[in-house]
C-alpha cells in the first residue's frame, strides 16, 4: 500500500507538470521507477501503460477547455505511434544511453530559444498561422522513438519544437501534444508487451502512476487555460533548459561543486525571467484597463 501511494503521488506531480507545460510526465515517472530499482525497459513499459489512462484524462480535460487542435493531434500522433512502437522494440533489446547527450544538446538549444523568445517578445502580435505537416510528421516520428527508448521524450521533443515556431498558441501546443500522447502510449505499450512477454510488470506500479495522473489531469488543463501565454512559454523553456542541462552535466561527470553552481545559475536566471515576464504581463493589463476606461468615458458623457 505504501508503494502504491508513493507511485500515485509521483504520478500526480508528473501529470501536473506535464499537463500544464506539455512535458515531463515520462521523465519524472521514469526517474522514480528507476530509483525504485526497475530496469529501463520495465520502467518505460510501466510508464507508457499508465499513460494510456492519463493521456485520455488529460486529453478530455484539454478538449473541454478548448486547448486541442485536432489537426496537430492526427498529423503528429500517427507518425509518433510508429516511432514509439519501433523505439519500444529497440529498447527491449539494446540500450540507447549513448544518444542522450546529443539529444539533450538539441533540446537545450530549443529550450533557450523558447525561454528567451517568450520572455522578450509579445506573442499577441504574432500571426498564428498553424504548423506545416512537413514538420509535424517527422517530428512525431522522432519524438515517439525517443519517448519509448528514453522512458520520456514525447513532450520534451514535441512541445519546444512547436513552441519555437510561434505559429500556434502555447495552450493549444500543450493540449494537442498531451492529447496525441494517447496514440504514443498505446503504440509503445504494444511494443513493450510484445518484446517483454516474459517480463513481470507490476500492476501496483502502473496503477499508482495511473491514479495520480488521472486526478491531476483536470487541474493541469485548467491551469494551462488561465495562465497567460507568455508565462507558459517561459515556464516551459526554463523546464526544458534545466532538465537537459542535468543530462549533460551527468554525461560530462563534472566534479563538485560545479553541478550545483550550474543548476543554481540556471534557476536564478529562470526566476529573473519569470519575474520580468510577470511584470510585463501586469503592465500590459494595466495599460489595457486604462485604454478601456478612456474609451468608456466619452460614451458615458
UniProtKB/TrEMBL annotation:
It comes from the Bacteria. Keywords: Cell membrane, Membrane, Transmembrane, Transmembrane helix. The chain crosses the membrane at residues 29-50, 70-90, 102-120, 203-224, 231-249, 261-282. It holds the Pfam family TauE. Coiled coil: none annotated. InterPro entries: TM_pro_TauE-like, TSUP/Inactive_protease-like. It is found in: Cell membrane; Membrane. The keyword Cell membrane applies. Its main location: membrane. It is a multi-pass membrane protein. Belongs to the 4-toluene sulfonate uptake permease (TSUP) (TC 2.A.102) family. This is Probable membrane transporter protein. It comes from Saccharopolyspora griseoalba.
Amino acid at each position: 500500500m505504501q508503494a502504491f501511494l508513493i507511485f500515485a503521488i509521483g504520478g500526480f506531480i508528473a501529470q501536473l507538470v506535464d499537463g500544464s507545460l506539455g512535458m515531463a510526465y515520462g521523465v519524472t515517472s521514469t526517474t522514480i521507477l528507476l530509483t525504485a530499482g526497475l530496469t529501463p525497459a520495465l520502467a518505460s513499459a510501466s510508464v507508457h501503460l499508465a499513460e494510456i489512462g492519463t493521456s485520455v484524462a488529460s486529453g478530455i480535460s484539454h478538449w473541454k477547455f478548448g486547448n486541442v487542435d485536432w489537426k496537430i493531434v492526427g498529423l503528429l500522433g500517427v507518425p509518433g505511434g510508429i516511432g514509439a512502437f519501433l523505439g519500444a522494440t529497440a529498447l527491449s533489446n539494446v540500450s540507447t544511453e549513448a544518444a542522450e547527450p546529443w539529444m539533450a544538446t538539441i533540446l537545450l538549444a530549443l529550450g533557450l530559444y523558447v525561454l528567451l523568445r517568450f520572455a522578450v517578445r509579445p506573442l499577441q502580435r504574432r500571426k498564428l498561422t498553424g504548423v506545416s505537416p512537413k514538420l509535424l510528421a517527422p517530428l512525431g516520428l522522432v519524438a515517439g522513438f525517443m519517448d519509448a527508448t528514453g522512458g520520456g521524450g514525447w513532450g520534451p521533443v514535441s512541445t519546444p519544437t512547436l513552441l519555437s515556431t510561434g505559429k500556434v498558441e502555447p495552450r493549444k501546443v500543450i493540449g494537442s501534444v498531451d492529447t496525441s500522447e494517447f496514440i504514443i502510449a498505446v503504440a509503445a505499450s504494444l511494443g513493450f508487451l510484445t518484446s517483454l512477454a516474459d517480463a513481470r510488470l507490476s500492476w501496483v506500479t502502473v496503477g499508482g502512476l495511473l491514479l495520480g495522473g488521472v486526478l491531476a489531469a483536470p487541474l493541469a488543463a485548467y491551469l494551462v487555460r488561465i495562465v497567460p501565454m507568455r508565462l507558459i512559454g517561459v515556464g516551459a523553456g526554463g523546464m526544458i533548459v534545466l532538465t537537459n542541462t542535468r543530462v549533460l552535466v551527468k554525461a560530462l561527470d563534472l566534479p563538485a561543486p560545479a553541478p550545483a553552481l550550474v543548476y543554481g545559475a540556471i534557476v536564478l536566471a529562470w526566476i529573473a525571467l519569470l519575474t520580468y515576464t510577470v511584470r510585463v504581463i501586469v503592465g500590459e493589463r494595466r495599460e489595457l484597463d486604462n485604454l478601456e476606461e478612456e474609451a468608456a468615458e466619452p460614451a458615458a458623457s
